[in-house]
Amino acid sequence: LGLEPLPAPGNVRLQITKLPGELKAIWGGLEDSRIYELEYTDKDPLVPENWKPLKMLSDNSYLLQGLASHVPVSIRVRGVSPLGVGPWSDVATTKPL
Question: Is residue 39 within a helix (H) or strand (E), and if so which, with residue range?
């Protein structure tokens, strides 16, 4: 079918919202991705065991709520298509209000 394996999503970022404990995750969409898998950690993002599944979704943004204020949160995202799972994106980290 000419389908290529998925690349990692680009332009991954966390935006601070006006509400305490809330961040908006945004990333660049992938043409052939059906679903995005989002993971997060509030611990060291360099330790693989610290990552936890957050959400499987079709949009390229997600509102994280109920976070601890002023504690750094990191996210990463990858695309899922009929060909399989793509690589993880770069990590984005910031602290909610």
Answer: strand 35-41
- Cα distance between the two ends of the chain: 47
Residue whose pair of structure tokens reads 């996210």 in the numeric block: 75
The pLDDT of residue 3: 60
Burial of 89 (0-12, 13-18, 19+ CB in 10 A): buried
What is the reported pTM? 0.91
Using CA atoms, how far apart are residues 16 and 94, in angstroms rounded to an integer?
8
The whole-number pLDDT of residue 97 equals 94
Confidence tier at 83 by pLDDT (50, 70, 90): confident
Give the dihedral sign, CA 79/85/89/91.
positive
Q: Are 51 and 5 in contact (CB under 8 A)?
A: no
Pair of tokens at residue 92: 């984005």
The whole-number pLDDT of residue 32 equals 82
